Amino acid sequence: MSTQHFASDNYAGICPEAMAAFAAANAGHAPAYGEDDWTRRVSDRLRVLFDTDCDVYFVFNGTAANSLALAALCQSYHSVVCHELAHIETDECGGPEFFSNGSKLLPARGENGKLTPAAVLEVISRRSDVHYPKPRVVTLTQSTEVGTVYQPREIAAISACAHEHGLRVHMDGARFANAVAALGVAPADITWRAGVDVLCFGGTKMGLPVGEAVVFFDRALSEDFAYRCKQAGQLASKMRFLSAPWLGILEGEVWLNHARHANAMARRLAAGLQQVPGAKLMFPVEANGVFCELPEHVLAGLRERGWRFYTFIGAGGARFMCGWDTLPESVDALLADLRVLSA
Ligand SMILES: *Cc1c(COP(=O)(O)O)cnc(C)c1O
Predict the structure, then answer these.
(1) Which of 23, 164, 202, 326 lies deepest, with the highest CB count within 10 Å?
(2) What is the DSSP code string of 218-260?
(3) HSE value, Cβ hemisphere, 13 Å, CA-based, for 226
(4) Rounded distance between C-alpha atoms, residue 234 and residue 57, angstroms
(5) What's the rounded Cα separation, in Å, for the pair 211 and 178?
(6) Closest CA to 112 of 89, 137, 83
(7) Which atom of ligand 1 is nearest to the CA of 141?
(8) Distance of CA 282 to the CA centre of its chain
(9) Which CATH code, of 3.30.450.40, 3.40.50.10240, 3.90.1150.10, 3.40.50.150, is assigned to 254-342?
(10) pLDDT of residue 1
């Protein structure tokens, strides 16, 4: 067995179902640029999954999905309210600002990586004059960057507040599957039924080789989106290889079962960490990530033993992500090393 890591769920390979669908799409010639049968079928399948007539586009990664979706909602003089830990703010190299020609991100605070209507209101009512960029979008990350999950009513409350003030709602769903699995709700219940206008539905971390789906629930917002993708270098000519893998995981409940498994592995790790002296969980473990404060010598010891993980939040905080393929034995091996190093 090769060593598994906890640095990110994108360390995992391609799940077998996606791989099979990918291979099946490698069948002779097919129309390019999304005019193929696979892309049409996956888009239809997503409309069934979300129980609504949404517009669907496939792009290569999450940064592009978020940046282009936000650019579609904003003019250059607009602004986007996000959590201060939002991926668009901390990890997209200014992509949303670049593709929107200058829309400004307005970070807000909130416990457990989540925005609240009050936090949004605070940001958008600071100023209403022409000298300040006009708030246009609220963006939520589901599940969040710190492994928590918005409840349907929390999303609905933020959306209601946003819409009341003329703002649109974008959802960064790089780990949308983990949230749906955790909540046990219909995908529609935490998206359009809760007021979300556009969702970036993450495929990569779910077990696809590459690619995310941008899902417009308000179809008026997707006008000219195909041009935006093309100009940004995000229109795949052999689109079928981006879209077909989705067919494999949307069959039955494959995607949800993978996400349920990843979430369960995170819970297993969190439970074990509670028995490790000196370890302190930083956030409720609601999806597939575990954030834990650990003494510096323990972090160093883990690295020495070859474990890979990120420490980008807080002081001494380590992030451990679980994926569709995380083995219980890998969780247990990490915990065993943690116990030895903490003794
Ligand atoms: C991984 C991730 C993305 C997408 O990142 P890319 O590397 O651009 O694919 C977006 N948002 C969140 C919250 C993520 O964790």
Answers:
(1) 326
(2) SGGGGTTHHHHHHHTT---TTTHHHHHHHHHHHSTTHHHHHHH
(3) 8
(4) 10
(5) 17
(6) 83
(7) 13
(8) 20
(9) 3.90.1150.10
(10) 41
| Nearest alpha carbon, ligand 1 atom 14 | 174
| Domain map (residue ranges) of the chain | 16-250, 254-342
What are the pLDDT digits (tens) for 174-204? 999 999 999 999 999 999 999 999 999 999 9
Which residues have C-beta atoms less than 6 Å from ligand 1?
61-63, 87, 141, 145, 172, 174, 204-205
The mean per-residue pLDDT over the stretch 7-16 comes to 96
200 alpha carbon – ligand 1 mean position (Å)? 10
CATH class assigned to 16-250 = alpha beta
Among 91, 105, 148, which residue has the most ligand 1 atoms within 8 Å of its CB, making it the best to mutate?
91
Q: Residue written as tokens 């939040």?
A: 313
**Pairing state between β 134-141 and 168-173:** parallel
Query: pLDDT tens digits for 252-298?
Result: 999 999 999 999 999 999 999 999 999 999 999 999 999 999 999 99
Q: Given this model, what pLDDT does residue 313 score? A: 77
Evaluate whether 196 touches 61 at the Cβ level (below 8 Å): no
> 141: which strand partners?
172
